[in-house]
Amino acid sequence: xxxxxxxxxxxxxxSAVLGAHAxxxxxxxxxxxKVLRAVAPTQLxxxxxxxxxxxxxxxxxxxxxxxxxxxxxxxGTVAAGAAQSARYAHATLxxxxxxxxxxxxxxxxxCRLSCR
Length: 116
Fold this sequence. Notes:
mainly alpha, about 0% strand
């Protein structure tokens, strides 16, 4: 379990550094930089989940399903954030209508909130 804890801590540190770096940089007009900046909060959330997984692995009575849940939650969080950012980038760069099919004048709440 020590190896799992070290791996979780290293992944948490990498995710936190990448997320903090993306947030610390000034906002750029480049589309790729906007996407990286939009994924940063989910990277920070994943870092917290991975750190919790490391704590579970280092505990005196490690519970493997909880460790798996922490890692899966972190991966799922980053994947969902990346998908949301990609949808935002696609809508912004292509100027297309939202994915829900409504007009661009009155998008649904999920489209409107994901573009902020």
